[in-house]
């Protein structure tokens, strides 16, 4: 059940903060619907701030999760899509360069930090501790579920930039003869992950923090070589991206941004200012993620409750 409708949330927030946001003729703001829990949490917090303290209108567009399509829409500036809630670098570098650096039609806030790794559950740690261990045929055989002679790992969703990075790692480490990627949605992976954990079966997968699975389960990140100059050379925008790219070291921490169409500076300047000033904290995002992903709370309820409990932080975003 909703704690507040948009107008009641705005009134409650303003009564606590004493903040007065001047009303303008403002267009509705459209927000991406990305398919990982952290991005969904951020989307609902942004929506709740727009509809609450800013007393404007926002909509999360169901199923709109492909960054390339979203970026094209934000570039047009026609309101078809205005906000991409969780833009990662270097995972989205090619799109970043095209629309933020070159055409300058998309703007962004300050980033928060994201960690990425390839994991196994703790009960596999006595046999697998590093990518070197994956080069052993007997280890790959443990993960061969379909009997085709190759171990399987989850690389991610087809729409994620990180999914290419994981495959490049396996190619660059010379593991393609022993391993094959499985590419499907995070929801499908979570179901398979839970089943594997219950049965203590082998499972190898890419994941990141903040996210609820690493927070809720004992996972072991595989060791990799330290980063050196030139160890990560990505050509993600090329047709032959897998063959043209190399990645022979551990991930650098990713930088995650809220990206938005610069057209909002004319179409809804109050929201544009808010999106430029929002500062997200990885620990806070993980609190939202645990409530939504682990505890199955409604994301809009989580967003509205957090806004009510943190007026000073929200005030910094919208002042």
Keywords:
319 residues, alpha+beta, D-Maltodextrin-Binding Protein, domain 2, 6-stranded antiparallel β-sheet, 14 helices, 42% helix, transmembrane transporter activity
Descriptive overview:
The protein is of the alpha+beta class and 319 residues long. Helix content is 42%, strand content 18%. It is built from 14 helices and 12 strands. It has helices at residues 6-17, 37-51, 67-76, 93-102, 137-142, 161-172, 186-199, 212-216, 241-244, 264-267, 269-277, 282-294, 299-309, 311-318, and strands at 29-31, 58-60, 83-89, 106-108, 112-121, 151-156, 179-183, 205-209, 219-221, 232-233, 246-247, 254-261. The strands form 4 sheets. Strands 3, 4, 5, 8, 9 and 12 form a 6-stranded antiparallel beta sheet that branches. Helix 2 links the parallel strand 1 and strand 2 (58-60). Helix 2 packs across helix 12 (282-294).
């Amino acid at each position: 059940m909703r704690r507040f409708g948009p107008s009641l949330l705005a009134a409650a927030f303003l009564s606590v903060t004493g903040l007065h946001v001047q009303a303008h003729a403002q267009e509705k703001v459209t927000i991406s619907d990305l398919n990982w829990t952290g991005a969904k949490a951020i989307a609902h917090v942004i929506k709740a701030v727009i509809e609450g303290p800013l007393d404007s209108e926002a909509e999360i567009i169901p199923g709109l999760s492909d960054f390339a399509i979203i970026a094209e829409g934000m570039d047009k500036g026609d309101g078809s899509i205005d906000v991409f809630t969780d833009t990662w670098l270097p995972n989205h570098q090619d799109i970043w360069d095209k629309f933020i650096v070159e055409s300058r039609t998309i703007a962004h806030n300050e980033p928060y930090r994201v960690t990425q790794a390839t994991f196994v559950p703790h009960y596999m740690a006595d046999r697998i501790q590093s990518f070197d261990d994956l080069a052993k045929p007997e280890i790959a055989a443990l993960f061969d579920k379909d009997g085709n002679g190759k171990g399987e790992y989850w690389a991610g969703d087809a729409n994620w930039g990180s999914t290419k990075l994981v495959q490049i790692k396996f190619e660059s480490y010379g593991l393609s003869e022993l391993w094959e990627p499985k590419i499907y949605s995070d929801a499908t992976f979570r179901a398979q992950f839970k089943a594997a954990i219950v049965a203590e079966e082998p499972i190898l997968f890419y994941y990141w923090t903040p996210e609820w699975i690493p927070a809720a389960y004992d996972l072991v990140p595989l060791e990799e070589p330290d980063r050196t100059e030139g160890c990560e050379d990505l050509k993600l925008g090329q047709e032959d991206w897998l063959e043209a790219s190399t990645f022979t070291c551990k991930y650098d921490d990713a930088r995650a941004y809220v990206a938005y169409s610069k057209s909002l500076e004319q179409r809804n300047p109050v929201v544009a200012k808010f999106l430029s000033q929002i500062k997200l904290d990885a620990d806070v995002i993980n609190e939202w993620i645990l409530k939504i992903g682990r505890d199955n709370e409604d994301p809009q309820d989580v967003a509205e409750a957090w806004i009510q409990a943190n007026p000073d932080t929200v005030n910094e975003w919208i002042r």
